[in-house]
Structure to design on (1115 residues):
């Protein structure tokens, strides 16, 4: 019996490994287009069809009309969201790459600089 | 014996009487009236060419005694002429002729001594061909048509003891000469002798009426005269070359054309009286009049004259007999010479000398005027009295030589004023040229009516006038002041004048006038105003000026808008400009002003172009927290441009020396354009914070800003700098010491530009805490709670702790820097929004920084000890047990509240570490440190994760390849270049 249990355990382990999906997430531009709000914050991110966008923190008095900063974005390798800032007065070309790990119609999970956050679609 | 003589005398007398009676009876018997009548009728046909009738002829002795007389009653002379009003030429009621009996008896000569006519009615007529009805005597047979000159010598001696015509009524109608004459009830008597060419005669004439009317060829009346109650007496004695005599004429009433008006006709005085002694030369037609007197109504003239008739020439002295009263005299003039409503009176004395032909008479006269009076409300609203004057006139009616009047004196008074004039009027009969000295004292209210309404000038006060004027009447009428001349002085007291929108008052003010202008070329007049204290008020400005000395060159304000060249100097003065006050010790300016009545501000109304020098001035204004002291302020102002030549200003703790220019000042004040300026500022000390507070919010609506503060819940104590709007001013600064944001800065130099809500600092260099710094920045203030700045800040050789004190946000961004000690170079290029307390709004902060240094010391702490232990450092501290960093060169970026540190090398003695990672502003971190070089030749990786203050430090995988050395990213340089590009754009364009 003991060998049988060991065998079943080994099979289960094999199955787990065999079934593990390594395919990266494919996110299309159209899925991303819209306005998203970061959970637990007043941060908003907008992605426009022309690959521009803006981020604003309402807790600091910013708004979509007067954002914290603007940027251009594009999706690389299926789910690597690269955005590069563009300034109102000076163009500060700082680039960051976030990895989108989950994507649905109204929810997005992405890995940012120092953590993973969920964003919810506003529109 | 006596008895005998008595008998003899009686006998002789009786005998003579008997002879006379006998002769008389004989004459009466011989010469009966009927016989005499017949004789006369028969004889008359020999002497007259017309029908005559004699009624009754008598001899008379008594009427013509001592001559024998022939008295003829009812004499008719009838001579019908076609067109004559009557066939009867004359009817004489009684004609008596007295004959010298002795002459007749002795020498058989008929000498007529007396001719008496009584009750004469004559109707004389001359037809259009010149034939007269009174041409009744036979013409001479002498065919000689050459007339011999008349000479008394050619006449027989006469002794006319009496020629008398009584009650003569005659009329003459002359068709050829277009003349009608009438005589009513005229008595004439002539007594005289003519002996050997010498005449002695007396003529007396009294008539009730003499009338004469002549017409010209077209029937227009040329003479219409009627004289009533005429008395004429003429005495003359001498020969024709020298006939001495006396003429006396009196006419009680009458008219002559329209020269005698109703007033004159109704006067109680005789119309005309003439007393004229004369010495006549009839051959040369010359008359000398000595002490003659001509009186018309109550106005008499004394006359001495030498008159020639052929050709007509007069040399006369005319004097008024006493003073003539002007008003009644004017009433007697045939035409109204004064305009309606004008009242003129006075007493006039005249003494004149006239010579020449009447049409070319030259007259020199002295006219004296006293107790004159003038009132003409249409010209002057007040009466002018006590007018007195003394004039010398020289008039040439031929106009061949100029006529002039010398005003020796002319004085006049009103109730409150007086004026005196002396001078000269030339070209009296043409365009009068007046050269007059006028002095007077008058209240300015009296002069107000003479000020043209177009000048918009109101005056009150008193003035003493002393003016010399030189002008032509045509110039005065045409207001051609450009060609007139005047110099003078007016001293005003209690002056209160309003000109357009300028109101000036002065207790005492002197005005010197020069026309045409000499000091100011192209201007009409120079004026110089000096006063003790002058108070001025105009829109936006009120001032009290001490000892002003104002030189003006003015144009003609009646022909064009007033423009003046100005030089002005003031002593101690004070001005109120709206709510600001300016006190000056001295001010001088020169330039020009031009009045534009359509202007609404002081600038576009007066269009000044001025060079101004202010000394020791002081400006206090509600907009200034403190008083500004102008030690010196020299500037040049022209429309829309103010050039500051040299300004030395003290404001609170700051001092400025300024020069440069400001443009569009007027349009800016009217909110039509932006104020553009380019100024150089040099200062020993500037309190930048004070200056920022001074200009903060300029051009913004204060209510709007306040509303924004309320909406954004801005704390009261937060007063961020709001960049001025509507201005584009660049300040090139050189400031030795300054205080800015609580920091003492030295040697501050660079350009500061404020452009319509954007402030730009372009490579401002300064020294702070012994470190050299350079700052380029853009600052905007759209809302008090949302300020924006983009900066490029370069610090060289600064103590790290000083850096963190100066820029606390660096500590926030790079907290690990606090562990370092030593000097570093710091370069930050970033942009962010700020709150009202200048704290970055971190979500908007994005930028890059580079920190480099050598020989730094790291303060030991637990984290460093752990890392050292994991990396197995040996002897990594110096002999003082300090951690020495040989060199450090870090680049980092900040975005989204996350600071990313790019891989950098850290050299600690024999060890070389490469570090990189991120940390967030909420104190989370993720760093990887890897030992690239160690004596053990082992590669070690350490991860630091978690909370910055208490991270989790563990061994991590080795990431970097051998011999990896991190490259410089150059992010700061990129951003610096970009910032500079944007600064340039912002300065060149209207960036919002």
């Amino acid at each position: 019996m003991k060998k049988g249990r060991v065998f079943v355990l080994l099979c289960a382990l094999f199955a787990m490994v065999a079934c593990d999906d390594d395919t990266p997430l494919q996110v299309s531009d159209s899925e991303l287009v819209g306005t998203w709000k970061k959970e637990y914050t007043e941060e908003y991110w907008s992605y426009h069809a022309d690959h521009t966008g803006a981020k604003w923190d309402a807790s600091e008095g910013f708004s979509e009309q007067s954002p914290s900063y603007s940027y251009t974005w594009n999706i690389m390798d299926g789910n690597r969201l690269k955005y590069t800032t563009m300034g109102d007065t000076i163009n500060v070309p700082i680039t960051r790459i976030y990895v989108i790990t989950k994507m649905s119609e109204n929810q997005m999970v992405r890995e940012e600089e120092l953590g993973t956050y969920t964003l919810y679609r506003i529109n | 014996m006596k008895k005998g003589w008595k008998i003899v005398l009686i006998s002789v007398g009786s005998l003579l009487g008997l002879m006379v009676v006998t002769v008389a009876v004989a004459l009466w018997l011989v010469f009966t009236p009927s016989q005499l009548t017949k004789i006369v009728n028969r004889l008359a046909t020999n002497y007259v060419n017309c029908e005559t009738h004699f009624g009754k002829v008598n001899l008379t002795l008594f009427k013509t005694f001592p001559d024998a007389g022939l008295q003829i009653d009812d004499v008719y002379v009838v001579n019908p002429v076609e067109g004559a009003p009557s066939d009867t030429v004359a009817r004489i009621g009684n004609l008596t002729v007295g004959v010298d009996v002795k002459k007749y008896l002795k020498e058989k000569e008929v000498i007529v001594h007396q001719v008496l006519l009584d009750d004469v009615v004559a109707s004389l007529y001359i037809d259009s061909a010149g034939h007269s009805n009174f041409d009744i005597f036979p013409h001479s047979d002498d065919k000689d048509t050459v007339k011999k000159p008349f000479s008394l010598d050619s006449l027989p001696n006469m002794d006319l003891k009496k020629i008398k015509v009584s009650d003569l009524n005659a009329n003459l109608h002359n068709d050829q000469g277009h003349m009608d004459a009438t005589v009513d009830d005229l008595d004439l008597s002539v007594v005289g002798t003519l002996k050997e060419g010498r005449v002695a005669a007396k003529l007396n004439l009294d008539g009730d009426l003499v009338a004469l009317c002549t017409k010209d060829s077209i029937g227009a009346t040329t003479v219409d005269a009627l004289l009533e109650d005429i008395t004429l007496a003429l005495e003359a004695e001498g020969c024709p070359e020298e006939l001495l005599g006396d003429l006396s004429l009196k006419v009680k009433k009458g008219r002559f054309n329209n020269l005698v008006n109703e007033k004159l006709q109704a006067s109680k005085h005789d119309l005309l009286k003439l007393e004229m002694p004369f010495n006549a030369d009839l051959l040369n037609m010359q008359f000398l009049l000595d002490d003659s007197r001509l009186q018309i109504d109550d106005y008499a003239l004394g006359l001495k004259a030498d008159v020639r008739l052929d050709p007509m020439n007069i040399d006369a002295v005319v004097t008024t007999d006493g003073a003539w009263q002007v008003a009644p005299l004017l009433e007697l003039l045939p035409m109204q010479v004064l305009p309606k409503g004008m009242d003129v009176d006075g007493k006039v004395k005249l003494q004149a000398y006239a010579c020449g032909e009447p049409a070319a008479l030259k007259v020199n006269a002295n006219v004296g005027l006293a107790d004159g009076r003038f009132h003409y409300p249409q010209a002057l609203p007040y009466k002018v009295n006590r007018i007195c004057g003394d004039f010398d006139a020289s008039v040439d009616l031929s106009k061949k030589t100029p006529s002039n009047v010398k005003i020796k004196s002319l004085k006049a008074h009103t109730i409150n004023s007086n004026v005196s004039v002396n001078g000269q009027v030339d070209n009296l009969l043409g365009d009068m040229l007046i050269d007059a000295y006028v002095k007077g004292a008058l209240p300015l209210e009296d002069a107000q009516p003479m000020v043209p309404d177009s000048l918009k000038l109101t005056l009150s006060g008193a003035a003493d006038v002393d003016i010399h004027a030189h002008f032509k009447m045509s110039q005065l009428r045409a207001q051609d002041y450009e060609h007139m001349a005047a110099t003078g002085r007016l001293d005003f007291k209690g002056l209160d004048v309003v000109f357009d929108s300028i109101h000036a008052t002065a207790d005492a003010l002197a005005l010197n006038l020069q026309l045409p202008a000499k000091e100011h070329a192209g201007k009409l007049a120079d004026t110089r105003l000096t006063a003790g204290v002058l108070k001025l008020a105009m829109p936006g400005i009120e001032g009290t000026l001490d000892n002003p000395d104002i030189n003006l060159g003015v144009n003609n304000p009646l022909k064009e808008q007033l423009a003046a060249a100005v030089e002005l100097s003031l002593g101690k003065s004070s001005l109120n400009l709206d709510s600001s006050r300016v006190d000056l010790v001295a001010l001088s300016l020169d330039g020009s002003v031009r009045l534009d009545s359509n202007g609404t501000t002081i600038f576009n109304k007066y269009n000044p172009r001025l060079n101004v020098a202010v000394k020791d001035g002081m400006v206090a204004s509600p907009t200034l927290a403190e008083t500004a002291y102008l030690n010196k302020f020299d500037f040049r102002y022209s429309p829309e441009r103010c050039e500051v030549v040299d300004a030395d200003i003290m404001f609170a703790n700051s001092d400025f020396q300024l020069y440069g220019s400001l443009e569009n000042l007027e349009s800016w004040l009217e909110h039509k354009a932006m104020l553009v300026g380019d100024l150089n500022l040099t200062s020993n000390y500037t309190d930048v914070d004070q200056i920022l507070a001074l200009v903060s919010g300029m051009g913004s609506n204060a209510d709007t800003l306040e509303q924004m503060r309320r909406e954004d819940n801005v704390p009261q104590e937060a007063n961020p700098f709001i960049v001025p709007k509507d201005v584009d001013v660049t300040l090139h600064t050189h400031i030795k010491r300054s205080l800015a944001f609580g920091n003492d800065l030295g040697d501050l130099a660079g350009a500061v530009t404020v452009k319509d809500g954007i402030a730009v600092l372009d490579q401002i260099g300064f020294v702070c805490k012994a470190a050299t710094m350079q700052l380029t920045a853009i600052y905007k203030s759209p809302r008090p709670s949302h300020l924006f700045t983009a900066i490029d800040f370069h610090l060289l050789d600064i103590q790290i702790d000083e850096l963190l004190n100066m820029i606390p946000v660096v500590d926030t961004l790079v907290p690990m820097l606090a562990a370092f000690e030593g000097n570093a170079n710091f370069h930050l290029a970033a942009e962010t929004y700020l709150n009202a307390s200048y704290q970055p709004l971190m979500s908007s902060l994005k930028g890059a920084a580079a920190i480099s240094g050598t020989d730094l010391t790291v303060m030991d702490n637990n984290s460093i000890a752990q890392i050292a232990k994991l990396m197995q450092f040996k002897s990594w501290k110096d002999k003082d047990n300090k951690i020495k960093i040989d060199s450090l060169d870090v680049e980092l970026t900040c975005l989204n509240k996350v600071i990313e540190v790019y891989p950098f090398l850290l050299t600690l003695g024999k060890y070389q570490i490469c570090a990189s990672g991120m940390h967030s502003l909420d104190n989370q971190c993720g760093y990887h440190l890897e030992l690239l070089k160690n004596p053990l030749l082992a590669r070690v990786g350490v991860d630091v994760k978690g909370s910055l203050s208490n991270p989790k430090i563990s061994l991590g995988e080795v990431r970097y390849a051998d011999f990896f050395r991190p490259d410089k990213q150059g992010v700061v340089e990129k951003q610096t270049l970009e910032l500079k590009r944007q600064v340039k754009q912002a300065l060149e364009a209207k960036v919002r």
About this structure: Chain A has two helices and eight strands.
